[in-house]
Amino acid sequence: MNEDQNIDETLREETAQDSPEVQEHDRLAELEAQLAEAKQSVLYAQADTQNVRRRLEKEAQDARAYAATNFARDVLSVADNLQRALDAIPAELREDEKFKGLVIGLEATGREVASVFERNGITRIASIGEKLDPNKHQAMMELPSADAEPGTIVQEMQAGYMIKDRLLRPAMVGVAKAG
Fold this sequence. Notes:
Elements: H1 3-17, H2 20-65, H3 69-88, H4 91-95, H5 97-119, E1 122-124, E2 137-144, E3 153-158, E4 161-163, E5 166-169, E6 171-177
Parallel strand pairs: 2-6
Antiparallel strand pairs: 1-4, 3-6, 4-5
């Protein structure tokens, strides 16, 4: 017998040894591996779907909570102008009977604007006497101050506002400087 015949005979013997049970066992192992892979893919798909659902719920919640942001920014200028009008009325005109109704009406309008802001989660940022917080305040100038510590807000040029936990508009302030 030559070497090629020996190899052929060995292959035939090995093939003959691959009985139906061995073939079935190999096939079963292959199917189990495929099943495990499919289960893993399903778990990843479920996790991905859950993450997408959570992200969409958060985005929808944020959209509802902050939908009025642009409108609120626009209304802030109206509130600022109303406050400027009230501040511009001299004390003697406030006491004059001819202007008393006008002053009372402007003050009532100011209270109503404040009430609307409160109902919609819009709050005024505290400034005077506070330390400068760049997340809430915009320093416009430094002012010499003997009483205040450097970095403390001593003047407010324009009120700042938050809408819920987000900055709507920073407060424009003057800050005490050293010496």
